[in-house]
Amino acid sequence: MRDNGRQWEIMDLLKAAEKHFKEKEIEAPRLHAEILLAYVMQATRIELYLKHDRPVSRSELEKFRSLCRERLNGKPLQYITGEQIFYGHSFLVDERVLIPRPETELVLEHTLDRAVVSDIPEGQKLTILDIGTGSGCLAIMLALKLPDAIITAVDFSAKALEVAEHNAGEHGVADRIRFLQTDVLCSGFIDEVAGAYDVVLSNPPYIPEQEWEELAPEVKNHEPKMALVTPDGFEFYRAISRSASALLKPGGMLCFELHAEGAEKVREIVDTHGFRNVEVHKDYSGWDRVLSGVSAAVGEVVPREGARARTCRGS
């Protein structure tokens, strides 16, 4: 995008940026160019086309070039603009939290489907626990879609909770979500989130440590590792299933996002903790992505894993 004093117009700059991104093998080069230029010009992508012949100021050009360099250096687009769209709503994201993926919307949809058929006694409200809330996207969308629900959202990271609380405020649901900093790997977790819940859901860290080096550089170099990786990929499924078996009401639902190849192992874990009617749902690419199960009914004998010592993560 060299100019030699050239006066750029919006459309010419978009075409030049698209060409440059394509040469550097950036996926969806036109979309990247549109989003970054719209961000710089504080406009919508549609407005770029409505004002396609508008001159781009020198300050706008320099800022646009700077952001393009950040993207070419591997910084995720969402961290550059500070925004990710999740289920049609805008969420602040930065390097304190994972970037919400489209696949996580399936966890939301499955939970909403469950809420519709839940037999909540008159005078009571649906209670939901979101473990590892990150940006807060699941808890906040549930608060928006289920205005009568009582929602608790927890995370180990104080920095992630700062983002989640900001997003809750932006969406007008801050007073309807209880945010807690706590660690599901710690033995005191059940006491800290005390309650009887209708739904426990989580998109936990599930990438085995051995796969870390195989991840794309923009993930490894920018997204928070502790929100992605565990030693074997299943520690959080075990801990959450164990806690959920005590926290859920009889007939309550546990819902997980899955590692694409982890469904059978997670099924074994939830079976061990007495969950029934286990279902696995595929994502848009055909991978197993969401698993849910129903807690044991009153009086049902529930098998348990032997007692295991749990070690809290360091701060």
Describe this structure in words.
Helix content is 38%, strand content 18%. By secondary structure, the protein is an alpha/beta fold. α7 links the parallel β3 (127-131) and β4. The longest helix has 15 residues, at 58-72. The protein starts with 9 loop residues before the first helix and ends in a 21-residue tail after the last strand. Residues 298-310 have low confidence and may be disordered.
Write the layout of secondary structure elements.
Blueprint: H1 10-23, H2 29-41, H3 45-50, H4 58-72, H5 77-81, E1 83-86, E2 89-92, H6 105-117, E3 127-131, H7 137-145, E4 150-155, H8 158-170, E5 177-181, H9 189-192, E6 197-202, E7 207-208, H10 217-220, E8 229-230, H11 235-247, E9 248-257, H12 263-272, E10 276-282, E11 288-294
Helix pairs in contact: 1-2, 2-4, 6-7
Q: Notable features of this structure?
A:
single chain, 315 residues, alpha/beta, seven-stranded mixed β-sheet, two-stranded antiparallel ribbon, 12 helices, 38% helix
